[in-house]
Structures are given as structure tokens and as C-alpha cells.
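WARN retry 2 of 3 for item q-0093 after timeout on previous attempt; input resubmitted unchanged.
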Amino acid sequence: MISASDRKKAIELIDETIHAGARLKPSCGEVGISTRTYQRWSKSTESMEDKRPIAKRKPPKNKLSIEERIEVLQIVNNKEYANLVPGQIVPKLADQGIYLASESTIHRILKEEKQNTHRSKTKEPVKRVPPTHIATAQNQVWTWDITWLDGSVKGLYFKLYLILDMFSRMIVGYEVWETENAEYAQILVKRALLAQKISGNPLVLHSDNGSPMKAATFLATLEKLGVQSSFSRPRVSNDNPYSESLFKTMKYVPTFPNGGFATIQDAREWVKKFVHWYNHVHMHSGIQYLTPYQRHYGLGENIIKNRKLVYAMAKDKHPERWSGKIRNWDLPKYVSLNPIREEELQGIVEVSS
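OK item q-0093 returned
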């Protein structure tokens, strides 16, 4: 359903285009409504209100009678069926030559009677809210993870610990060790904070639910450092997308050794070269093809300004080759860990700007 405020906004936009010389039908098509809908909404303020939620409708002909409804409630609350879901109750009754209502109808009746609860001893499913953080500048939200690097011998692996700034995509800390350990994670975070010179500043550190990430000693260290910990939902890798995407980029670059690393020193040397390439050479598509270093240290504005100028000059030189405006090179004002509603997003951006 379209709210009254959205309907009013649509009418204002259409009226504005009509006054500018546009025709009614194409203008309505741009906002996704018909001319008849425009005419109905334009009549009065009351016509903009959606009456469907408060409309009085005749009961459907196939609606259960009061007696049938009571019978359904009596049976589903019977001791024999109390722990069964409607999907089991209906066929069980059918085997006895009884049919009262469909599964969806029984679910609806239970919901209306506030009885649509968990009907067995198993643990009730928990709906977890996706973790969402917004970064409007560098060093506000970091994400980190651990990936395994193959050794030259089967069964040998080295562990790469890596911290990424979500806003700029810059790698702000990395280490390679032989094992996964909370102590190593503490060292990595401390070094990254010192390197960025942000000790004591508000910071969110997001990760998955690995044992080093949730170790009590590591969480205690974060608390002492003033860093807020954040975790993905269990078994949902999409909640840590920036770190996962970085690991894929790393393992698919042409220079990545398919045969594995002979020693941990070899792994550290290669990772050091990769981090330099990624931060200073690699042009990232998520930040308008700037390097993460340029984005992190505010060097991108002049570069983007120059690109816009080059494109404008190219269009002026050969306007026949351009069907519309030049490419949008504007940098994103914010980066979110998980999608959130546009209203909330705009509110956060306005507060931070």
C-alpha cells in the first residue's frame, strides 16, 4: 500500500512536470501510476488516504461458521493433537474420515486466538536481526577475518589475519601466523590502532563467530581499548561481506601461488606485496575506481573532479556520441554492512554530515 505522504509527493512531482510542459500520461508512467489513479488522488486530501485497511467487507461465502470454528479449536487443543502442527493434524484427521479445514485456515484461526505458538518441546526458532553498521568516514567500522593459506605440503596451512576499513576498503592491519589464536588477534588489533593513530576513538570491529573472535581474553582487550565488538549471525557469511570479498580478490590474483607456500616467511613476503598492491595500486570498483589508500586519506576528491572534467570535455568535443549525461563519478557518502531502510540511512547520513 502507498502511504498518503507518498501519494501527495507523487502528485506534486507530476504537477511539476506538467507545468514544465510534459504530458500527463508519460509523467504518470514515470512514477508508476495510471492517469486514472492520478485523477482519483487529485480530487481531495481524503482520496489520498488508502481506505483498504478500514474498509468493511462482506464475509466470504466459504468462511467457517462459528460452530465449525469452535470445533477446530477444540480438536487442535485436544491432548492428542496439542503438540502437533496443522500440517500433521489435517492428514491425521483425514485418515479418520474427518475434514474440518485446510492447514492455512487452522493457522489463521490459531493466530486470531493467539494460540499460534510453538507446539512441541524442541527449541523455538530464534529470528536474528542482521547486524548493520554505517560508516561515513574512515576508521569508523573495521571488519576482520582469518583465512587459510595453503602450504606446499598437504595438510600444512598458514593463517592470515586481516583487518579492513569498511569505508575506504583499505587493509589497515595484517599478520600471518601458523595457528588461530586469540593472543595473535589481540596483537593485530593493537598494531592496527597504533598504525592508524586512533587509540581511544570510537570504533566498531566486526567479525564472524570464530573462536579467536569470541575468546574472552580478546573481547576483554577490545573493551580496554574502547573498541565495540560486532558479530555476524551464526552460519551467515554474507554478514561479513567485505572481508570475504577481499579474500576472494587475494586468492584469484595472477600472482597467487597455486602450489602453496613453502615456509611461513614465504607467505609473509607474498602477503606484504599483495597488501601494498591492494592498497596503493588496485582500483576498487566499490569506491569509483580509486585505490583504497586514496579513499582512506581523502585524496579521491581531486581525482574524481578531474575525471568529471575529462568526461565533460569529451562530451563537448563529440556530443553526438553521448546519448545522455556523463558517467556519475560521485563517491558514495556512506557504506553499510547490511542493507537498511532508506529513511534510517538518510537520517544517519544527515546527522554525520
